[in-house]
């Protein structure tokens, strides 16, 4: 036994003598490779730096202490490059005092002092008169809380901090103010707000928009790096909330001065794709512009299976999650109603326990997670309304069939009700290419961001966002200062958006595709007409590079809903946007006539596709349907024209990828890319294209007609019988 043990120990010694040096050598190789790549990324030429950063972003096998050591010797430029390359989050130094939250009252005092140093400023003076009548007292209170401690935060202080964030988003659009806030250490105070509102995605989204405005300052890179914001933004870029993903990606793109394809994104312009670095320039720019009460993650979400409703008093729904926001529909409305119902029940229970119903001024901060705009799961509650048992069994069998054969032809569920005379489109797909997504539980809050990159990854997709309102009561243009009065006018808004789009290098040697919903189409027309007359080459290239325009429910001749102001002006008090959208307004008609002249002259090579609504929209305030944009107002007698069976809100929301609306968008993009790359041969399958016409079938009691009557209950599926009637007549 002793000899056996001695033999085993000798073998272990030999293993340790041979293996351990190899292991140490391998570890040193890994460390030396990372160190050498980091050194190249910091000191090499731009070409070498780009290659080194791509290799560093692939490293994920090091220990935590190795990443911490490398992060401490990493500089600002390399850290930003790694963040925009999708590197591991351990590459970034953690936030200073991450586990400690500064007392909100001290944070308020810090912002009071910082904003006071910005005076004299008309915006700041107006804000002080309204929200800061006197100095905030902050003596005799604790400076920091730990995350384990229950931090007491009054509702008044919470609302005040949110107002400050919204006001900072307003004033930081001016570069001089943003630069002054940056030089006075404002990023450190903003980091404290990130800790306080860590569970409030809506407030964090507004805070991230403030960071995006400050990132446009040329000297902001080192400030972002020193304050720990690079790591925080890199974390938000991988957050499941789409709002934080997009806005943080925009901020990092503004900070990345080492990117050879660098583009700045000013306010109102959001890069939906790509959000990371790319090695090649995009081949096309696709711009999405929403309409009234819309937003990037509101207008362009997937269609909800339940009927949608429109509220007249809804706010701009880009980041709202309040219970009184009647404009929220679908998944967001259901999610918000569940959350706030629980909160109200808890509040009622607490009031009952207090007995007298009194409420304390200082309340414990609710650990309530803000709704996340991400790919959610949809409820499966669809039932087939078919009474015949045999037909019901056949339909259920077809829905559960894994794959159809090529002799089947599946019609898109949103096939147009009518179309123009010469309009042809892909209204169906062969059965072997059909993907049954009717029971699919995947849901997207932004299909341009999640669907289009799969079909056209070499394009740049941009979303335009702006605030709007239907009534003056819900308008917030003059909430913070009088300087925003009149910003709701279409001409003012189009001029501002065009100037900011030109700074994003739109249409630089690549085609531009415009997709506008409702008033977004009006803004598209006005911006193009302004761009064609602008002497600035960056602005003029936007008009010259325009290849296609897709209008979705655009009121070219106005909307009848705007005339309500004549009958209900005292109740509704319509906003500036609604007044300018009045049906038959002279300014709107003159703008449309000039645009039609441009289509026949300078825009004669631009392809236009118009889609109108074929169903009324349900108004929640009055509980009756209303046709917001009529077919006559949406028609422009140029290009392709379709009328879908959807309402005004659903025109921008495809039900799934294999729908007519989404496939028509893909066709518009494909045609624009082919103009640059040249035509390619395409094999068309028989029966996949046809015109929308009424088909008359002979009245007979044949077996073929009976089968046709059965499949009439399933509008998505049809069978081709090319010579069925001919053969039947021959037999007769």
TrEMBL record:
InterPro entries in alphabetical order: AB_hydrolase_fold, ARM-like, ARM-type_fold
Name of the protein in its database record: Protein SERAC1
Species assigned in the record: Ceratitis capitata
């Amino acid at each position: 036994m002793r000899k056996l043990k001695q033999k085993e120990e000798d073998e272990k010694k030999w293993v340790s003598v041979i293996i351990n040096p190899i292991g140490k050598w391998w570890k040193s190789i890994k460390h030396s490779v990372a160190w050498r790549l980091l050194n190249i990324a910091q000191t090499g030429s731009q070409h070498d730096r780009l290659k080194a950063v791509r290799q560093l972003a692939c490293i994920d096998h090091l220990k935590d202490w190795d990443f911490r050591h490398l992060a401490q010797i990493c500089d600002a430029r390399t850290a930003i490059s790694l963040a925009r390359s999708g590197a591991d989050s351990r590459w970034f130094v953690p936030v200073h005092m991450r586990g400690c939250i500064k007392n909100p009252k001290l944070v308020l005092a810090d912002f009071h002092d910082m904003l006071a140093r910005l005076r004299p400023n008309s915006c700041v003076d107006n804000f002080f008169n309204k929200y800061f009548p006197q100095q905030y007292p902050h003596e005799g209170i604790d400076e920091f809380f730990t995350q384990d401690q229950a931090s007491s935060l009054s509702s008044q202080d919470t609302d005040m901090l949110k107002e400050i964030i919204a006001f900072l988003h307003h004033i930081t659009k001016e570069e001089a103010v943003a630069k002054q806030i940056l030089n006075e250490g404002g990023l450190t105070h903003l980091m404290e707000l990130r800790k306080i509102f860590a569970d409030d995605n809506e407030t964090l989204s507004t805070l991230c928009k403030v960071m995006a405005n400050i990132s446009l300052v040329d000297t902001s890179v080192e400030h972002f790096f020193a304050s720990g914001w690079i790591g925080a933004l890199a974390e938000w870029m991988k957050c499941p909330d789409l709002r934080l993903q997009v806005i943080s990606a925009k901020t990092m793109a503004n900070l990345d001065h080492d990117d050879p394809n660098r583009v700045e994104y000013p306010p109102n312009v959001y890069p939906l794709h790509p959000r990371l670095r790319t090695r090649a320039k995009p081949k096309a720019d696709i711009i999405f512009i929403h309409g009234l009460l819309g937003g990037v993650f509101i207008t362009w979400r997937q269609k909800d299976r339940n009927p949608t409703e429109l509220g007249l008093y809804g706010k701009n729904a880009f980041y709202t999650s309040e219970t009184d926001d009647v404009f929220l529909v679908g998944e967001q409305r259901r999610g918000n109603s569940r959350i706030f119902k629980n909160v109200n029940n808890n509040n009622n229970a607490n009031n009952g326990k207090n007995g007298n119903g009194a409420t304390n001024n200082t309340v414990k901060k609710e650990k309530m997670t803000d709704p996340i705009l991400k790919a959610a799961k949809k409820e499966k509650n669809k039932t087939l309304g078919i009474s015949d048992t045999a037909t019901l069994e056949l339909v259920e069998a077809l829905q559960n069939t894994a794959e159809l054969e090529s002799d089947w032809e599946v019609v898109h569920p949103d096939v147009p009700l009518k179309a123009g005379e010469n309009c042809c489109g892909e209204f169906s797909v062969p059965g072997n290419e059909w993907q049954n997504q009717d029971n699919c539980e995947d849901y997207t809050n932004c299909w341009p961001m999640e669907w289009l990159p799969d079909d056209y990854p070499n394009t740049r997709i941009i979303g335009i966002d702006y605030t709007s309102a239907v009534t003056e009561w819900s308008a917030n243009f003059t909430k913070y200062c009088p300087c925003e009065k009149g910003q709701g006018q279409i001409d003012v808004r189009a001029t501002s958006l065009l100037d900011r789009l030109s700074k994003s290098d739109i249409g630089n040697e690549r085609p531009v595709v415009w997709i506008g919903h409702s008033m977004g189409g009006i803004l598209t027309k006005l911006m193009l007409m302004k761009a064609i007359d602008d002497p600035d080459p960056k602005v003029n290239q936007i008009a010259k590079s325009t290849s296609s325009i897709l209008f979705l429910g655009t009121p070219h001749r106005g909307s009848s809903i705007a005339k309500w102001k004549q009958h209900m002006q005292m109740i509704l008090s319509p906003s500036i946007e609604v007044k300018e959208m009045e049906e038959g307004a002279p300014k709107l008609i003159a703008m449309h006539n000039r645009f039609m002249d441009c289509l026949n002259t300078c825009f004669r090579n631009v392809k236009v596709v118009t889609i109108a609504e074929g169903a009324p929209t349900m108004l929640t305030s009055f509980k009756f349907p209303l046709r917001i944009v009529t077919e006559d107002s949406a028609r422009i007698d140029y290009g392709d024209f379709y009328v879908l069976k959807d309402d005004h809100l659903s025109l921008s929301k495809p039900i799934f990828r294999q729908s007519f609306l989404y496939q028509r968008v893909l066709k518009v993009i494909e045609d624009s890319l082919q103009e640059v790359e040249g035509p390619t041969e395409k094999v068309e399958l028989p029966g996949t294209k046809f015109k929308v016409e009424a088909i008359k079938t002979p009245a007979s009691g044949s077996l073929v007609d009976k089968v046709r009557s059965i499949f009439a209950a399933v509008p998505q599926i049809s069978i081709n019988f090319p010579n069925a009637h001919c053969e039947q007549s021959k037999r007769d």
